[in-house]
Specification:
about 300 residues; alpha/beta; Arc Repressor Mutant, subunit A; D-Maltodextrin-Binding Protein, domain 2; 5-stranded mixed sheet; elongated
Length: about 300
């Protein structure tokens, strides 16, 4: 293809001659010989099949085709330089610090792989991972205390001034230890939950409204006892040691479900499907280092989302 044959040096010579209106001055600026610059211009014209420049008493002038090509050649070279500068900035060791809010649904799934990929590039980035309720993390993002939040899409009233990029969707699951009395039960009724403690996320969590609607729809509004927590480590350990039922985003326990340590109760939770993704400030462009991290998170999500 034509664009694969055009090299950076062709564009560089063309742009410099267009600026200087002289092959000789352009050669001096590029530290090349005049024949070398002329050769590159000739090669470019032959590839495009048109004359780009003409000699006149005023020097070298662009043809109509040259004027047309100048716009795109300038944009291409500028983009290459910007890309190279971005990489150089990102590789300045020890000078970049990123603060990222991470919800439990991604903390043990896609984030470890994404962070490893970022650090494998040896960029010298100091990464500060912050856990907390979704509402709190979004507030910190809005005021600039965080650079990024990775997790469920926030409520509409929380998203003012923020931008969300979806990675995948996940649903809620009813989770118990593998030896739980209900683990081998077929169809479950609301009455089956009455003898067990129910764990669920705190009201300020992103998934709490969906879980509340689900419990009401399933008729499980009054369990024996209820514990609200956003601590995934507490939730996992508590159901290991008890017969409690945990209603939680499936991504939080995906690994334990895949190994058989935990079991998912057979309840329809499709209505709780919700997007998980990247939330940033709408008025701030990502730094090179943050863009690299976001790319790594997207890659990790692409490999992992099939397990939800």
């Amino acid at each position: 293809m034509l664009e694969n044959r055009i090299k950076y040096r062709h564009l560089q010579c063309f742009l410099e001659v267009a600026r200087q209106r002289s092959v000789g001055r352009a050669a001096d600026m590029l530290a090349l010989t005049q024949p070398a610059v002329s050769k590159k211009l000739k090669e470019l014209e032959e590839m495009l099949g048109v004359r780009l420049m003409e000699r006149s008493k005023k020097g070298v002038e662009l043809t109509q085709f040259g004027e047309m090509f100048l716009k795109y050649a300038s944009a291409s070279v500028a983009a290459l330089r910007e890309g190279a500068d971005s990489i150089a900035q990102a590789r300045q060791k020890g000078r970049t610090r990123l603060s990222v809010g991470v919800l439990p649904t991604v903390a043990t799934s896609i984030m470890p792989q994404a962070v490893k990929a970022l650090y494998d590039n040896d960029l010298g980035v100091t990464l500060n991972l912050v856990a907390g309720p979704n509402s709190q993390l979004l507030n910190q993002l809005r005021v600039g205390a965080l650079d990024l939040v990775v997790g469920r899409l926030g409520a509409v009233d929380m998203m003012s001034g923020l931008s969300f990029q979806s990675l995948f969707s996940e649903r809620v699951a009813f989770v118990v230890r593998s030896q739980h009395p209900l683990a081998r039960t077929g169809a479950l009724s609301a009455a089956a939950f009455s003898d067990y403690t129910l764990l669920r996320p705190s009201p300020e969590s992103a998934v709490a409204p969906a879980i509340e609607r689900l419990l009401l729809a399933q008729g499980i509004a009054t369990p024996k006892a209820s514990i609200e927590t956003i601590s995934d480590s507490f939730g996992k350990e508590y159901i290991r040691q008890s017969d409690a039922i945990w209603v939680i985003s499936r991504g939080v326990v995906a690994r334990e479900l895949s190994t058989g340590e935990f079991a998912e109760l057979p309840l329809d939770t499709d209505d709780t499907q919700g997007p998980v993704g990247l939330t940033t400030r709408a008025d701030v462009s990502p730094t090179p280092a943050l863009q690299l991290l976001m790319n790594a998170i997207r890659d990790a999500a692409g490999h992992y989302s099939g397990s939800y």
